[in-house]
C-alpha cells in the first residue's frame, strides 16, 4: 500500500467527520483542507507540469501538501509550506513522516505575510531557487498581496493556483477583489476551474 495514499485516506475520513460535526469543532482544530477532487486535480496537473520546487501558503494538517508531494519526482524535489498554527504543524509533520515524504517538505512557521517577505528577499536574487508551482490557501483577504509577492518568485511558465474562488460564499467579496486584481496583470493568463471550492489557475507567460 502506498504510504501517501494511506495517510490521505485517513485525512479524508477526518474531513468527512468535520463536515458532519462542523459546529462542534473549534476553528483552530479544523482541517480546512481542499476537497478530494481538488487534490486529484492538482495531482494530475502537477504530474503533467513536473515541478521541482513548490511553495504552499497554508499547510493546515498537510492534506494538499501530500497530493503535491505524490506528484513530484527526483532527488531535488522540494516543497516549502507555510503555517502559523503550531498544533497543525505538529499534526502535519506527523502526517509527512507517516507518508515517508518528510525529507522533501520544509515547514515554515509564522504569519504568511511575514514569512513571504523574508522568503522573497532571498529568492528574488536567485533565479535557480524560484518556484514552478505556488498554491494559495490561507487568509482570503490577503490573496492579492500573496499573489503580488509570489509572482517574482515564480519561474516563467510557472503556475500560481488559489483555492476557495467560488465557495464558501462568505469569501465572495475577497475572491472578486482577487480576480479583478490578477486580471489586470498583462503577462498572466488565468482561468477559474469549478472543481471543489473553485480554483483559479494563473499561468506566468514565458
Record the SSE blueprint:
Layout: H1 3-20, H2 36-49, E1 53-57, H3 63-71, E2 78-83, H4 86-99, E3 105-109, H5 112-123, E4 131-136, H6 143-150, E5 154-162, H7 172-182, E6 188-193, E7 199-204
Parallel strand pairs: 1-2, 1-4, 2-3, 4-5
Antiparallel strand pairs: 5-7, 6-7
Main beta-sheet strand count, sense and barrel state: 7 strands, mixed
Helical content stands at: 40-55%
Radius of gyration: 16 Å
Low-confidence sequence ranges: none
Polypeptide structure, described:
The structure is a single chain. The longest helix is centred in the first third of the chain and has 18 residues, at 3-20. Helix 6 (143-150) links the parallel strand 4 (131-136) and strand 5 (154-162). The chain has 206 residues and is α/β, with parallel strands linked by helices. It contains 7 helices and 7 strands. The model has no long low-confidence stretch (mean pLDDT 94). It is 42% helix and 21% strand. The chain is globular, with a radius of gyration of 16 Å. It has helices spanning 3-20, 36-49, 63-71, 86-99, 112-123, 143-150, 172-182; strands spanning 53-57, 78-83, 105-109, 131-136, 154-162, 188-193, 199-204. The protein has a 7-stranded mixed beta sheet, with helices on both faces.
Amino acid at each position: 500500500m502506498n504510504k501517501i495514499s494511506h495517510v490521505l485516506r485517513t485525512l479524508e475520513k477526518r474531513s468527512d467527520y468535520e463536515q458532519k460535526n462542523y459546529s462542534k469543532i473549534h476553528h483552530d482544530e479544523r482541517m480546512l483542507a481542499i476537497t478530494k477532487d481538488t487534490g486529484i486535480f492538482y495531482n494530475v496537473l502537477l504530474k503533467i507540469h513536473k515541478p521541482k520546487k513548490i511553495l504552499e501558503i497554508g499547510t493546515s494538517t498537510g492534506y494538499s501538501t501530500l497530493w503535491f508531494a505524490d506528484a513530484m519526482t527526483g532527488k531535488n524535489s522540494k516543497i516549502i509550506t507555510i503555517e502559523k498554527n503550531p498544533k497543525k504543524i505538529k499534526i502535519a509533520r506527523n502526517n509527512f513522516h507517516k507518508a515517508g515524504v518528510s525529507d522533501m517538505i520544509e515547514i515554515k512557521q509564522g504569519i504568511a505575510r511575514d514569512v513571504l517577505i523574508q522568503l522573497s528577499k532571498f529568492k528574488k536574487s536567485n533565479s535557480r531557487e524560484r518556484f514552478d508551482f505556488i498554491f494559495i490557501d490561507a487568509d482570503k483577504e490577503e490573496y492579492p498581496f500573496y499573489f503580488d509577492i509570489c509572482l517574482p518568485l515564480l519561474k516563467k511558465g510557472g503556475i500560481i493556483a488559489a483555492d476557495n474562488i467560488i465557495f464558501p460564499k462568505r469569501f465572495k467579496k475577497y475572491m472578486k477583489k482577487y480576480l479583478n486584481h490578477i486580471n489586470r496583470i498583462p503577462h498572466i493568463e488565468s482561468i477559474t476551474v469549478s472543481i471543489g471550492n473553485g480554483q483559479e489557475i494563473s499561468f506566468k507567460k514565458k
